[in-house]
């Protein structure tokens, strides 16, 4: 790739260095700011399709006839500039049917803009998890949901196992899964992605991601491996099958956390009760329960027990059978006694105080998570992401 993650971080967002980083990356079309203004009708509010912590997203018509999603980075956001560089660095070199496609960028003056292919059916959190057919008009029947789950899994398997160096997305969640006109899923927002250097088992880093999708070992110790993405995928898989967010405070206390509920039903051999009632009973019960069990496999407390993404694909498609004896209790957000979510600092929507993880074995208290959605679009970097400033050394 043209620049490494580490050099992107060191650039610190200064315009001259940003321009240098961009110039070093091949396969990236550079758009003139004038063309972007024309494409969006001078950033007309009627063309705005999303807004997040690091800027706004507009639908635009490019000169070559392509319809694009144009992500405009806020000039005040240093963190956003780093994510901007990372996103270009990661996504410019790779293509897959289940990843968004980067058309190019604009780095004219102080403007930092990413131009992506436009996807007609928004994100999973704005459609399926916001009321499904009733509110979005999209019919998420069982076949559609199964195809979405398999597509996301294939995209992640590509990032984890086929790309060199391997890529850890770090923010797999419903709002970062976009749907095209055929409801094929596309993984988006690579602003938090990390490259996994060869011959390394993990990277020790500050926590970045979204509460509710964070793997326990990563949230507590900053130990980042591909298994953190697999945990996030497991949560997302259960959301797709159940049609609900990983936390819903409108439900009775014992039903609020999706993983807790799934484990309770699994122990009682009643997982079918978790399947979305919006399907009106029209679904393959055996397959739906298998998907939920795969979600439990992916969210096990120990990273070593979670399957690889290529194995997950085989499990989802029925090419491999599940060993139910290997399913153990998931790592649950409510196991962290003093998790606290602070208010915004600078442009960061949420911040996790990692010093507050004082008793991982307790399940007596838990705070809010990403079940409360913001108004961001999946093209908008940084929405609902959780950060912790300290880097913890780790040993595996």
From TrEMBL:
Listed GO CC annotations: plasma membrane
Residues where ATP binds: 71
Domain Protein kinase residues, every copy: 43-322
Gene Ontology molecular function terms on file: ATP binding; protein serine/threonine kinase activity
Biological processes annotated in GO: response to freezing; response to insect; response to molecule of bacterial origin
UniProt-annotated stretches for the region Disordered: 344-383
Biased composition, class Basic and acidic residues, residue ranges: 344-354
SUPFAM superfamilies: Protein kinase-like (PK-like)
Coiled-coil segments: none
Biased composition (Low complexity): 355-383
Domain of life: Eukaryota
Keywords attached to this entry: ATP-binding, Kinase, Nucleotide-binding, Serine/threonine-protein kinase, Transferase
Homology family: Belongs to the protein kinase superfamily.
Name of this chain's protein: Protein kinase domain-containing protein
The organism of origin for this protein: Eutrema salsugineum
């Amino acid at each position: 790739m043209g620049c490494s993650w580490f050099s992107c971080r060191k650039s610190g967002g200064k315009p001259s260095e940003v321009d240098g980083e961009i110039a070093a990356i091949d396969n990236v079309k550079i758009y003139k700011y004038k063309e972007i203004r024309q494409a969006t009708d001078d950033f007309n509010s009627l063309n705005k399709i999303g807004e997040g912590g690091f800027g706004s997203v507009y639908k635009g018509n490019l000169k070559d006839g392509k319809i694009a999603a144009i992500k405009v980075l806020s000039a005040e956001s240093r963190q956003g500039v780093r994510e901007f560089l990372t996103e270009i660095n990661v996504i410019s070199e790779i293509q897959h049917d289940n990843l968004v496609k980067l058309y190019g960028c604009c780095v004219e003056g102080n403007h930092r803009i990413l131009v992506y292919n436009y996807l007609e059916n928004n994100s999973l959190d704005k459609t399926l998890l916001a009321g499904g057919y009733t509110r979005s008009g999209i019919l998420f029947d069982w076949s559609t949901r199964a195809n979405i789950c398999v597509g996301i899994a294939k995209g992640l398997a590509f990032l984890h196992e086929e790309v060199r160096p391997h890529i850890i997305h770090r923010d797999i969640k419903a709002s970062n899964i976009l749907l095209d006109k055929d409801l094929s899923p596309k993984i988006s927002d690579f602003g938090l992605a990390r490259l996994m250097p060869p011959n390394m088992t993990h990277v020790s880093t500050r926590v970045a991601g979204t509460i509710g999708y964070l793997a326990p070992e990563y949230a507590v110790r900053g130990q980042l491996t591909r298994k953190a993405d697999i945990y996030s995928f497991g949560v997302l898989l259960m959301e797709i099958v159940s049609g609900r967010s990983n936390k819903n405070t409108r439900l009775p206390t014992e039903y609020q956390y999706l993983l807790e509920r799934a484990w309770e039903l699994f122990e009682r051999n009643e997982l079918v009760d978790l399947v979305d009632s919006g399907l009106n009973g029209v679904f393959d019960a055996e397959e739906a329960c298998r998907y939920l069990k795969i979600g439990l496999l992916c969210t096990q407390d120990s990273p070593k027990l979670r399957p690889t993404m290529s194995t997950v694909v085989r499990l989802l498609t029925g090419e491999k059978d599940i060993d139910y004896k290997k399913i153990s209790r998931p790592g649950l957000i409510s196991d962290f006694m003093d998790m606290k979510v602070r208010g915004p600092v600078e442009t960061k929507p949420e911040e996790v105080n990692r010093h507050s993880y004082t008793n991982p074995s307790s399940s007596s208290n838990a705070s809010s998570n990403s079940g409360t959605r913001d108004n961001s679009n999946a093209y908008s970097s940084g929405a609902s992401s959780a950060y912790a400033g300290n880097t913890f050394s780790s040993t595996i």
